[in-house]
Backbone:
């Protein structure tokens, strides 16, 4: 089958458009990875400078804000495990639901955060409506609509500390495996900060 000159021009134009689109996507992805790297570097810096004068509430608020910055989202939570009650407590929340969600408690195995804790590994859910682990309990409580969720466990060796959760990436684009990798690293630093804060609390008069 022979190609006419017009056919060749159309093919080249389509390939050029596709190349531009792919380059744009790569540029966006690179920019996001650079943003995530800077945020993770700041998290590392905050964690390494914890001392007796550190305001822990402010520290964890700043850490969570940086985690959200690295994940390109405006909504997230830091949940700590209360081993006596077997509950997860929202000890820090960033987003417009903060006042309704802060200090709220859920059973340790509730929903996607509970599955993350149970499996003791990061969890990526691109669409909560298709997840058998999804629990609408918290969304109904605070009047929120979760679409895509990332969770990573917080731990000290084998000891479970809690869960780091981010929800709904900017532009309603679902999270992907790159985002999951970023959150895994962020959770490692937040875990170090929690352990360091515990150690300081034990030695302070």
Residues:
């Amino acid at each position: 089958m022979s190609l006419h000159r017009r056919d060749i021009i159309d093919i080249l134009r389509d390939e050029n458009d596709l190349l531009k689109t792919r380059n744009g996507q790569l540029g966006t992805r690179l920019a996001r990875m650079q943003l995530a790297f800077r945020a993770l570097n700041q998290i590392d810096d905050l964690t390494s400078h914890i001392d007796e004068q550190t305001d822990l509430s402010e520290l964890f608020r700043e850490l969570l804000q940086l985690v959200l910055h690295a994940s390109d989202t405006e909504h997230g939570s830091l949940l700590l495990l209360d081993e006596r009650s077997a509950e997860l407590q929202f000890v820090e929340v960033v987003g417009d639901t903060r006042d309704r969600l802060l200090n709220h408690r859920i059973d340790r195995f509730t929903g996607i955060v509970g599955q993350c804790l149970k499996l003791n590994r990061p969890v990526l859910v691109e669409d909560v409506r298709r997840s058998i682990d999804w629990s609408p309990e918290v969304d109904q409580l605070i009047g929120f609509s979760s679409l895509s969720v990332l969770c990573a466990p917080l731990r000290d060796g084998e000891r479970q500390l809690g869960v780091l959760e981010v929800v709904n990436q900017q532009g309603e684009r679902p999270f992907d495996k790159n985002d999951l990798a970023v959150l895994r690293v962020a959770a490692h630093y937040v875990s170090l900060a929690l352990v360091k804060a515990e150690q300081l609390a034990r030695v302070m008069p």
In short: Residues 147 and 172 are 8 Å apart (CA to CA).
